[in-house]
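Justification of computing resources. Each target in the renewal requires a structure prediction run like the one illustrated here; the chain below, 262 residues long, is used simply to show the kind of job we budget for.
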Amino acid sequence: MTTLSTQIEFDQKLARWLNVEQVALVREDLLPDGGGKKRRALEQFVQELEDVKHIHLLSYAGSHTAYTLSSLLPEVMIHLYGTHYGGGPYEKAMTTLLDSRENIIQKVDSSWSMSLAFNRQKRKARSGHHFMSIGGSLGSDLPTQNAVKETIKTTGEDFHHVVAVASGDLLTSIARQTDGVTGVLTQPLGIRILKYMSLRKSAGLWKPGLKERIKVMRDVRKVTGQTWDPIFMGTLFSYLKKQQKLPPKLCIWITCPGGIDW
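Resulting structure tokens:
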């Protein structure tokens, strides 16, 4: 297994925009093969597979996990059962991107329909087919734990970490090493409520509408020059911007894939 470096940047303009002393950015979006929060864990995951020719994944339309897997495993067919989530132009951009990949078969419909299709195939499980956990959750993995450790060593322990929460894997990994972390929930309301009750250090039961999140991310682009997604990072930055008082030093994990022009 290769060791993926942890790229950390300090952004004083973003610190002023958020009205805090310092902002450190963990640029997981710059990892290879599209990047994103699961890139480290997926490298370990693919090396543990044996004789697998088909991977089945129930996740959101245009899933980051499917996107990265298609690059890591070019000879394996990725079957994505994608659920609509109201992601507007970002959902459309990611769905179109995945449709262009030769080793991805993507079906997109309601959560109910895709869950039925996924479980129907799972009951027919046969040799060479692997079915991932819902949402592509991989649990707390060693490469991510090492990245958290390296980040804390670089920034210092007085930085408060902030992450967007989908599966909750990254939040759990950080919370094991520091109490200074907040996970901003990004899912539909029903799942947000369940995650809020089950995930330690989670926040953000209220989520702004998509138009507001898009506006916030356009404001962030003016400050940083970076185009990050309005679904996960848009929810995170909207949450931070609404807080009356933030920790003076923030470490923000940028966990969406890089290079997505939505």
